[in-house]
From TrEMBL:
Protein name: ABC transporter ATP-binding protein
Source organism of this protein record: Aquibacillus rhizosphaerae
Superkingdom of origin: Bacteria
Coiled-coil intervals: none
Record's keyword annotation contains Transport: yes
Domain ABC transporter per the UniProt entry, residue ranges: 3-228
């Protein structure tokens, strides 16, 4: 399914959560949706899921608006940080309701994962621990097999090994059944290897939308004597600079790693987590 945001704006009273953004997402792909607190990630996912109406502009899925449009929303599964299910429902009721809503539902996968994450089908959501409730959300997200599946920080309370298993199953399932997965997380180092494309939001704007491999190739740090590095970065996008003992390390965006090596610089890759911090930090962040 093709997702298109056109001049998308969402304001809450006088707060601008999404500020006139336009982009499109293709399938199948795993997107990492990144940004600092309050950048607009959740708002974007809620508009895409048809839970919120934009203030201006639109998000279209295959040319249609998701709001109040079951034909589209049954193709979209959004798993939030919490409160995904009514507290009085039993786990088995949650699965039944999801199986009725999503035409693509995979019951066998749901039960396999229930077993794997050791959830009891007969207990109510309100008696689940935080981690177990997150596991239930993850199970519904994976078993929905919805053509657009979104996970918005879905792992509150899940321990590291359960999170790891979630990432493994996500990749296995994606290989078997490719679709659009949008994954918002602050644990970037943990998951960034899964992302095929990275979207970075900042202050309601989309500031980076790039293929992850290309980003890894075109964003790097160069180190060397100050004057030499300054000359190299003069016409480049610089996201961070650090000087120490006559040596300068500069992180550049949209540059050519090989060419930098050929000019004799020490070149080092920049993890996506670090890039996001450089681009969005209030202290001297952003592209210069
Ligand atoms: N219901 C609401 N009422 C008023 N303001 C809101 C509401 N929901 C979000 N906002 C504001 O909109 C902006 C974007 O919030 P949003 O939750 O989309 O950000 P986010 O990137 O998901 O943040 P986080 O990483 O903290 O979850 C923030 O300034 C937030 O305070």
């Amino acid at each position: 399914m093709i997702i298109e945001a056109n001049n998308l704006t969402k304001t809450y009273k006088n707060k601008i959560a999404l500020n006139d953004i336009s982009f499109s997402l293709e399938e199948p792909k795993i997107y990492g949706l990144l940004g600092r607190n309050g950048a607009g990630k959740t708002t974007f996912m809620q508009v895409l899921a048809g839970l919120l109406l934009p203030t201006n502009g639109s998000v279209l899925v295959n040319g249609q608006t998701p709001f109040d449009n079951q034909k589209i929303t049954e193709s979209i599964c959004l798993i939030k940080e919490g409160d995904n299910f009514k507290k009085d429902l039993k786990v088995k009721n949650v699965l039944t309701i999801a199986s009725m809503f999503y035409p693509t539902w995979d019951n066998q996968l749901a039960f396999q994962l229930i077993d794997e994450f050791s959830l009891d089908l007969n207990v109510k959501v309100k008696t689940l621990s935080k981690g177990m409730e997150s596991a239930l959300g993850i199970i519904v997200g994976l078993a929905s097999k919805a053509p657009i599946t979104m996970f918005d920080e879905p792992y509150i309370g899940l321990d590291a090994s359960a999170r790891n298993r979630f990432y493994e199953v996500l990749v296995e399932q994606y290989q078997e059944h490719k679709r659009t997965i949008i994954f918002s997380t602050h644990l970037i180092d943990e998951v960034s290897l899964l992302f095929e494309e990275v979207l970075i939001f900042e202050g309601g704007k989309l500031i980076v939308k790039d293929d992850t491999d290309e980003l890894r190739e075109s964003c790097f740090s160069v180190s060397g004597p100050v004057a030499k590095v300054e000359a190299y970065i003069a016409n480049k996008k610089v996201v961070n600079k650090q000087e120490f003992a006559g040596m300068l390390t500069a992180t550049v965006l949209n540059a050519n790693k090989q060419a930098a090596r050929e000019q004799g610089f020490d070149v080092e890759g920049v993890p996506i987590q670090k890039l996001m911090i450089y681009l969005t930090s209030k202290q001297g962040g952003g592209v210069k």
